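Look over both lines before class:
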Amino acid sequence: MKNSHFKDGETVSLTFRRKSRKASSRTRNRIREHGPEFVVRQSPRAFRGAGELENRLCVLLEPVPNPNEWAGWLPIDEIEIINAV
């Protein structure tokens, strides 16, 4: 599926990109620790932070079924939707 399909409130199963540009260890760890299912809390937008996410399109995610466990931004060029629920 294309990453343009991230929609607010949607539940998605994610994996990290293995081809072309590899995912950062941060992204791989977040998916391993909290995924692979997430709820999209904010559709992709340019992240206005610092560090490796600055000025990159990122999506705000919460894990399923434990939304209070973690919520955070992942860059869409490092992740792929494998299933939208």
Observations:
- The two ends are 12 Å apart (CA to CA).
- The longest helix spans residues 25-34.
- The mean pLDDT is 85.
- The beta strands are 11-16, 37-46, 57-63, 72-75, 79-84.
